[in-house]
Amino acid sequence: MKVYLVQHGISLPKESDPEKGLSVAGIEQTKLIAGVAENYQIRVKQILHSGKTRALQTARIFFAALKPEKPLVSIKGIGPMDDVQSFRTGPDSLDHAMIVGHLPFMQRLLSLLVCDDADRMVYRFQNSGIVCLEREDGNWFIKWTLNPEVS
């Protein structure tokens, strides 16, 4: 089983866009990573997002590139400050799903799944980056990551 975690692309400051939509750099970086994922033939069955503008825009870019079989879906419980404990069993039913969300939620969820401690940072997300988690023998581990900045 695989799950793909994505932090939304770089957003505009609230002062210039109250909805905090993606910036030009955020759109470009997300398109870059989505294109690389497409070239690697990453198989995603569905893409879920938080419903916030920046997550929806990021999800749409990945959707266009990866062409999952199911439509985009906005879900509750993955907002920036939502409780990761309530989502702990969520990935079990989301094989080959991409979840587009926010920090600190995504980072805390990853830490909870990988080392059973949401407060222990095991990976630093980058905007538009993908973290592929795989579950084997009941344990989650980071299989690979794909990020716009590699240096």
List its traits.
6-stranded mixed sheet; 21% strand; Rossmann fold; alpha/beta; 3 helices; single chain; 27% helix
Task: Give the SSE layout.
Blueprint: E1 2-7, H1 24-39, E2 46-49, H2 53-66, E3 73-74, E4 97-101, H3 105-115, E5 130-136, E6 139-146
Helix pairs in contact: 1-2
Summarize the structure.
With 151 residues, this protein is α/β, with parallel strands linked by helices. 27% of the residues lie in helices and 21% in strands.
What does this structure look like?
- Helices cover 27% and strands 21% of the residues.
- It is α/β, with parallel strands linked by helices.
- It has a single domain (2-146), classed as Phosphoglycerate mutase-like (Rossmann fold), CATH 3.40.50.
- The chain has a six-stranded mixed β-sheet with strand order 3-2-4-1-5-6, sandwiched between helices.
- α1 packs parallel to α2 (53-66).
- The protein is globular.
- 36% of the residues are buried.
Approximate shape: globular
Largest sheet: 6 strands, mixed
Uncertain residue segments: none
What spatial order of strands do you see in the largest sheet? 3-2-4-1-5-6
How is the quaternary structure best described? single chain
Order of helices and strands: EHEHEEHEE
The DSSP helix count reads 3
- Look at the structure and give the mean pLDDT: 94
Kindly state the percentage of residues in helix.
25-40%
The CATH architecture comes to: 3-Layer(aba) Sandwich
Please tell me how large the radius of gyration is: 14 Å
Terminal CA distance: 30 Å
* CATH superfamily descriptor: Phosphoglycerate mutase-like
Stated plainly, the CATH topology is called Rossmann fold
Give the amount of beta strand, in percent: 15-25%
Number of domains: 1
How many individual β-strands? 6
The CATH class label is: Alpha Beta
Structural class: alpha/beta
